[in-house]
Amino acid sequence: MTMLHRMLTATAVVAVAFATPASAADIFPEGTPAAATNPPNSTFEVVGDPFSGAVSATIGNAGIATGLFTDRFIFRLGQNGLGSGSITTTLAGALGGRTDLDFLSATLFNGFTSFVVPLSPNGAFEFGALTNVPIFADVANVLTINGRSRGAGSYGGDLSFVPTAAVPEPATWALMLLGFAGIGVTMRRRRKDKVRVRYAF
User: Fold this and answer.
1) Which of 4, 7, 20, 35 has the most crowded Cβ, counting Cβ within 10 A?
2) What CA–CA distance (Å, rounded) separates 108 from 158?
3) Which of 23, 77, 33, 74 is nearest to 55 (CA)?
4) Torsions phi, psi of 157, nearest 5?
5) How far apart are the C-alpha atoms of 110 and 52, rounded to whole Å?
6) pTM
């Protein structure tokens, strides 16, 4: 096998491994430039200022064609805090005109860690929820929902975000500790340098 042949084979393997399935969709909040690429029946409506205060959002997709699907909801906030959310789907309609969907998996990647959303078993009503996930300022967060539509499937969900006080970075902690140590050394040195006066009578 020639070197060129090996390189082409490796490139093909990498391309297949990272290829996006045809039934995958990246969904961004409405009002963002990327929102123009959203599937026509998807929902991602945000209420609140992403840079100040609490934020909430509704997400979802409807009329999903029969088969496997993957939806990725991508968002970025300008503040640190905690995020929570839930997704739900319900069997609707009579046999023949039924809309049905099964959640296979759901994860939230906050830029550093992937959190698995616990899901209820497949059935007429399916539900999943996750609470108190750390969200960091200016980091892309990706909620990935994998499922199987059994015909015109749909689901919806709610996301919420509450800002928290900024947590100092490790370098800031190190500087603070160094500062406290410096103050302690200075105070100790001053105690030794005290001038003592004695009066003789």
Assistant:
1) 35
2) 13
3) 77
4) -165, 170
5) 19
6) 0.69
Beta strands at 67-75 and 24-27: parallel, antiparallel or unpaired: parallel
93: tokens are 């309609």
Question: What distance in Å separates the CA atoms of residue 35 and residue 74, rounded to the nearest whole number?
Answer: 10
For residue 130, give every residue at least 6 positions away whose Cβ sits within 8 Å of its Cβ, in sequence order, or none: 84, 85, 86, 108, 115, 117, 118
Contacts 24+ apart (CB under 8 A), 172-176: none
Spatial separation of the C-alpha atoms in residues 72 and 199, rounded to whole Å:
83
| Count of residues in the chain | 201
pLDDT tens digits for 175-199? Answer: 777 777 767 666 666 555 555 666 6
Q: How far apart are the C-alpha atoms of 64 and 30, rounded to whole Å?
A: 19
Distance CA 148, CA 137 (A): 33
**Cα–Cα distance measured from residue 175 to residue 183, given in angstroms and rounded to the nearest whole number:** 12
Q: How far is CA 47 from the centre of its chain?
A: 17
Backbone phi, psi, residue 47, to 5°: -120, 130
> φ and ψ at 172, to 5 degrees?
-65, -40
10 φ/ψ angles, rounded to the nearest 5 degrees: -65, -40
**pLDDT, tens digit, 9 for 90 and up, residues 119-166:** 987 677 899 999 999 999 999 999 999 999 888 889 999 999 999 875
Beta bridge partner(s), residue 56: 47, 160
Residue ranges of alpha helices (H) inside the chain are 3-18, 170-192
For residue 146, the surrounding DSSP H or E stretch is strand 141-149
